Amino acid sequence: MKKKIAILAMFFTLVFTSSVSAKTLEPRYNVAWNKIWTITFSQPIQEVEATVTNINGKTGEDGGIMGGILVDKNNNKVTVTPVLSYQPGTYILKITNATAINGQKLKEPVTMQFVVNQRTH
């Protein structure tokens, strides 16, 4: 599990520069219904916003997923955890308004589409 998180952390490494433009990461498929995303930044961050939106129409009041998400930042890592399990469908994870401790900002959002399949027991 730790190896998988480390691979995802490398995959999600974001670079803070003044010339960063919008970036769309490769889609992820067969994502677990309880997936916790770990995003690693190149520098320690002081603030960041993350949203997860279900593009299949089943959303909460703010357009996000039912139950919302918890965003926890720790130095240069941010974890995004669903409050309730993801339902089968297609989602967009979006990282916005990231600011490093040194004041550099992520100029444009970073997005990634992911697909959650039916649960199997």
UniProtKB/TrEMBL annotation:
Gene3D superfamilies from the UniProt entry: 2.60.40.1220
Keywords for the protein's UniProt record, in alphabetical order: Signal
Pfam families in alphabetical order: Big_5
Signal sequence region: 1-22
Domain (SbsA Ig-like): residue spans on this chain: 29-114
Superkingdom as given in the UniProt entry: Bacteria
Entry protein name: SbsA Ig-like domain-containing protein
Lineage of the species this protein comes from: Bacteria, Bacillati, Bacillota, Clostridia, Eubacteriales
